[in-house]
Specification:
Largest sheet: 2 strands, antiparallel
Shape: extended
Distance between the termini: 22 Å
Order of helices and strands: HHHHEE
Number of domains: 1
Radius of gyration: 15 Å
Number of strands: 2
Strand content: 5-15%
Strand order of the largest sheet: 1-2
Number of helices: 4
Amino acid sequence: MDDDVRKNITDRLREGVPGTEESDAVADVAQLRGRGSDLEQLHASDSLARLVHLTRLSKTDVVNRALQVYCFIEEQKLQGGELLVRKHDELQQVHII
């Protein structure tokens, strides 16, 4: 991934730069999806910063909630459950690797 693109995304996600729409950062990430493994280079710290920005929760609260959700998902998978997302009346199965 181009270092300038990654830095731009990371800066906007971490700081919530005034005048920068959240959709701009989302669009940048969507653009990277077309570039294969580049999206994988967005580290957990980038996701944490994004969630702090979106939820206005502390990093500790975000991590605690993330662990609770992850535990719930794993428990459901062990019991034969699936993770499904409904978007515009369409169901998609989600696989977490």
